[in-house]
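Reopening this ticket.

The earlier resolution said the output was attached, but the attachment link was broken on my side. Pasting everything inline this time so it's all in one place.
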Amino acid sequence: MPIKGYTCRLRVIFAEIKLKDPEFKQETFSKELGISRTTLYSIVNEKSLPSFDVAYSIAEKLGMRIEEIWIKELVQETKKEKDLQ
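Inline output:
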């Protein structure tokens, strides 16, 4: 469930990493970032959005851009657009 208009792809990204590296653990990843395992769990499961610093650190550690991890949801059609249809 997206929170505040963003969908987090970390669950998929971590699954892809785990396929390539069976030793990968989210707990180790969170320790390397300096955040708790429960904080990372909340982010991955879209219970909360990370601070900019944490999002930047996650993206940097994964070698990705923030926009590749958190996808902004499209804004629903405005009333005016609906009326034109």
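Reporter confirms the inline version is readable. Residues 10-20 form the longest helix (11 residues). The CA atoms of residues 52 and 66 lie 9 Å apart.
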